[in-house]
TrEMBL record, chain A:
Signal peptide: none annotated. Residues 8-78 form the MIP18 family-like domain. InterPro entries: FSCA_dom_sf, MIP18-like. This is Metal-sulfur cluster biosynthetic enzyme. It comes from Halogranum rubrum.
From TrEMBL, chain B:
It comes from Halogranum rubrum. InterPro entries: Amidohydro-rel (IPR006680), Metal_Hydrolase (IPR032466). PANTHER family: BLR3681 PROTEIN (PTHR42889). GO terms for molecular function: hydrolase activity. This is Amidohydrolase-related domain-containing protein. Residues 12-320 form the Amidohydrolase-related domain.
Length: 269, 353
């Protein structure tokens, strides 16, 4: 990214950081309180919906934010500050001093990476639900969906993280928004939208669920092969995960709003 | 009693509290953060003209509670769910004995539940016996994320917890309400985890496990477990306010619950005083699934289902004979005080259309 580092550019970069429980951007969720650019340093303050949002989740967001901002050229150091949290001091200190979660919270059991992995798996299931729904809506049958691979959707060499936003110099999108799947031994072409499949792959590839263009695109929550027989049950389970993430997102949104209202009231008084 | 299109709906509020978070009672900053967090839940979901001030919210007397539940709130019978939090509050937050006083004063109106914490060892088992002997409890609330000394929580599938669950079987305490929702800490250990319910429910088939707050933010894990364990129930507290603020989302959550658990294992709860039952019950009773949701989930949220969720399912767990109890309540002291005689206190007939 060329050009001067502005607070807007920092926010755009932070948009890649998600609340791991909700699988939504911390910028879209309104967690970012302030961004101060004083090159080569950038300072980001963020606040979560409650003072006791999981410290592990807060830790993941803070470390991800620091890492993303430090990828911007011209930024040597990102300072990420968590405010109004029960463990704001430990987390702010630990993240900015490059400590490990275990060193920051010696009495914590389990490790933060396994928590992250569990939440990533859930985010993946939720994204699978949205991707499969879009494919079914476009007219594919369950039998056809279980046979899909990245290659069949012309998605074997695509940068998923850039999908949806990046635009090439000539104005054409970097990544295809739709493709045609040929079914019934190639005699029928069905055009399917790809936005939600890109989003799915952006999670599936780093998790190692899809590593090759010929890998099956989807699988069961237990990591087994998706078949025409288990398709419906798996579809219902992924729907449930999506409903849960969405429902919890609603709760967090209302708590966040209530808390912000109270904070602003306190400032006025 | 709620009246819906001319039909009486008997309401059991499966989750109410009588708490004290007054500043004098707080001994640890966690106590203040705890009540502030509750207050965020309150203001986040309560219609603006129905919100309490933080001072009202810290603690309230029994008169207000009785009036909010039974006077204006349509509730017929309320189940108190204690949460001690002794590390945070001098005299505890919401005690078994304070709650039981209500049930002693209004035996037909309140079901007083007890509580246990397996980290209390032998003493805790004796305390459970005392609760049974003194108040004849038939249910307990358990709070697996509660702090105690250096411990920041416990699991229902631990050896110690099993000893307590066996004690419940022996004493005839059948309903185990597990709080699976907002908590304070346990760092990266996931206190919302509902997985411990699975083993406990399998090992104690004679007990009923009511997962309060339907496991949110673990609705998916909860439904998956409940689909396989017939003695696992879902308490609607925290999900219900969605009926007011996000009816479509409420329909989705309900659709999932009805799809995975069926209509016999969902229990209404207001979580009073987090929310007041009056507006909450109006919102749930008038909630409808959209045609798309009915098609997607293949379920109905019609009057018959609403009656189960609002009272019949809980009445089953707490051995309440609804017609008989309704008859008793019709002219009890509370009905008299609030002019409820006749049970006709819901909106006008057909007003819900």
């Amino acid at each position: 990214m060329a050009g001067p580092i502005t607070p807007t550019a920092v926010r755009e970069r932070l948009d890649r950081v998600t609340d791991p429980e909700l699988d939504r951007s911390i910028v879209a969720l309104g967690y970012i309180e302030s961004v101060d650019v004083d090159l080569p340093e950038v300072r980001v303050e963020f606040c979560l919906p409650t003072a006791w949002c999981s410290p592990a989740f807060a830790w993941m967001m803070a470390t991800d934010a620091r890492r993303e901002v430090e990828t911007l050229s011209g930024v040597e150091r990102a300072v990420v500050v968590l405010t109004d949290h029960m463990h704001e001091e430990e987390i702010t200190r630990g993240v900015n001093e490059g400590m490990s979660f275990e060193a920051t919270f010696p009495d914590a059991d389990g490790d933060v990476e396994s928590v992250r992995r569990d939440l990533d798996e859930k985010a993946l299931l939720s994204r699978q639900y949205h991707a499969v729904s879009a494919l079914l809506d476009a007219g594919l049958t369950p039998e056809q969906v279980v046979g899909l691979t990245p290659e069949r959707l012309n998605l074997d060499h695509v940068d998923d993280a850039a999908a949806g936003s990046a635009v090439r110099a000539d104005g054409a999108p970097e990544t295809p928004e739709a493709t045609t799947v040929f079914v019934r031994e190639g005699t029928v072409g069905i055009t399917v939208p790809l936005e939600s499949t890109h989003s799915y792959l952006a999670k599936a590839r780093p998790l190692g669920v899809v590593t090759d263009g010929s890998d099956p695109l989807f699988r069961t929550p237990d990591g087994e092969t998706l078949t025409a027989e288990n398709f419906e049950r798996v579809y219902h389970r992924t729907r449930l995960t999506a409903t849960n993430m969405d429902g919890q997102g609603g709760i967090c949104a209302y708590l966040h709003e209530a808390r912000q209202g109270r904070r602003h009231l306190a400032e006025v008084e | 009693m709620y009246r819906y299109k001319g039909e009486d709906v008997f309401v059991v509020d499966g989750h109410v509290h009588h708490w004290d978070a007054s500043e004098e009672n707080i001994k640890h900053e966690g106590g203040e953060q705890f009540i502030q967090c509750f207050y965020d839940y309150h203001t986040g979901f309560t219609p603006e003209d129905r919100q309490w001030t933080i001072d009202e919210y810290r603690t309230y007397d029994t008169d207000r509670m009785v009036s909010d539940l039974f006077g204006s709130g349509y509730v017929d019978v309320a189940v108190t769910q204690p949460t001690h939090l002794d590390e945070f509050y001098e005299e505890g937050f919401n005690r078994v004995d304070t709650n039981a006083e209500l049930a002693e004063q209004y035996p037909d109106r309140f079901v007083a539940n007890g509580r246990f914490d397996p980290r209390e060892g032998e003493e805790g088992l004796e305390e459970l016996e005392r609760q049974k002997a003194e108040y004849d409890i038939t249910g307990v609330k358990v709070y697996t994320a509660e702090w105690r000394g250096d411990s920041k929580g416990w699991r229902l599938d631990s050896e110690e917890a099993f000893e307590y669950l066996q004690k419940c079987v022996d004493l005839g305490i059948e309903n185990i309400h597990a709080h699976k929702g907002p908590t304070i800490r346990p760092l990266n250990k996931d206190a919302f985890d509902v997985a411990d319910i699975d083993d406990a429910a399998t090992s104690f088939p004679d007990l009923n496990f009511v997962v309060e707050h339907i496991g949110l933010p673990r609705l998916d894990d909860f439904c998956w477990i409940a689909a396989q364990e017939p003695n696992v129930y879902g308490g609607l507290a925290v999900a219900a306010p969605f009926a007011q603020v996000r009816p479509k989302k409420f329909g989705e959550i309900l659709g999932e619950l009805l799809f995975w658990l069926g209509e016999d294992r969902i229990l209404f709860g207001s979580d009073y005083a987090i929310w007041e039952p009056e507006w909450l019950i109006e919102a749930v009773m008038t909630a409808e699934l959209t045609p798309e949701q009915r098609a997607e989930y293949g379920v109905e949220f019609d009057l018959e289902t609403k009656k189960k969720v609002m009272g019949e399912n809980a009445a089953e767990l707490y051995d309440i004979d609804i017609p008989k109890r309704a008859d008793t309540l019709q002219d009890d002291a509370i009905s008299e005080e609030f002019g409820l005689t006749g049970g006709d206190i819901g909106p006008e007939e057909g007003a819900a259309d």
